Amino acid sequence: MKAFYIGLLGVASLLAAGNAAAQAKGDDVYKKACAVCHDQGIAGAPKLGDKAAWAPRIKQGMDALYMVGIKGKPGTGMVAKGGNASLSDADVKAAVDFMVAKAK
Ligand code: HEC
Q: What number of CA atoms fall less than 13 Å from residue 10's CA on the CB side?
């Protein structure tokens, strides 16, 4: 029962945190579904926080980056949703937001 209340408090504070919560979600999705390639630059993936690698990609605009995150990029190692089909489009967008924020 105690754990239930603590969980409830957690949810309430997440809702209250708003923006911070969205950022935490992006971080979380990134670690689960994207870090495996984007931490080390596997298969030519732009690394997290690598400004030089991200700058030309960011220039394409956020919508283009969201599309790649959700649909993948044909002919590259970037598969739809990083291969994690259970992610919602919003989850993927949060992860892209997180990655772009780290590269600015
Ligand atoms: C299996 C490895 C792998 C995983 C997992 C992966 N990526 Fe990628 N990602 C790549 C590679 C490789 C590229 C570079 C593609 C290219 O431009 O050649 C890339 C590029 C990108 C780009 C830049 C696209 C562009 O147009 O330049 C975004 C945004 C991106 N990934 C988002 C994500 C997100 C979000 C996740 C997790 C949900 C994720 N990736 C998981 C391999 C991966």
A: 7
- Cβ 103 under 6 angstroms from ligand 1: no
Q: Ligand 1 center to residue 14 CA distance, Å?
A: 28
| Confidence (pLDDT) at 42 | 95
Q: How many CB atoms lie within 10 A of CB 54?
A: 19
| pTM: predicted TM-score of the whole model, two decimal places | 0.86
- 96 contacts: CB under 8 Å, gap ≥ 6: 26, 62, 65, 66, 69
Kindly state if the Cβ of 26 falls inside 6 Å of ligand 1: no
Nearest protein Cα to ligand 1, atom 27? 57
Cβ–Cβ < 8 Å for 49, 103 = yes
Domains detected in the chain:
19-102 (1.10.760.10)
Task: For 47-89, write each residue's pLDDT tens digit.
Answer: 999 999 999 999 999 999 999 999 999 999 999 999 999 999 9
